[in-house]
Specification:
With about 80 residues, the chain is an all-alpha fold. Helices cover about 35% and strands about 0% of the residues. It is built from three helices and no strands. The longest helix is centred in the middle third of the chain and has 15 residues. It is globular and about 35 Å long. The two termini are about 20 Å apart.
Length: about 80
Amino acid sequence: MRPGAGSGPFPEYGDLDSDYVFVNLFAPPVGRPLHYSAVAGLVSQLRARTGIDFNLHMLRHSAASEMIPAGVAIEVVSKPESTD
């Protein structure tokens, strides 16, 4: 699972396949989920660059609002994943 010349929609990510949204792409352990603090840092940078006020809870709520009508079981949607 290292970035390289993959054949998917994002060839720069190689054969990386993950169920997580925020994953390490360029530093070990490649393909593993980022820790909460790293994702929070990314959100902080995005907020500063874009001027859009959002947080991780808002992203989770938005995802859940799409998943439930799409038929994903509430038990799956409501289960938080932890990388720690």
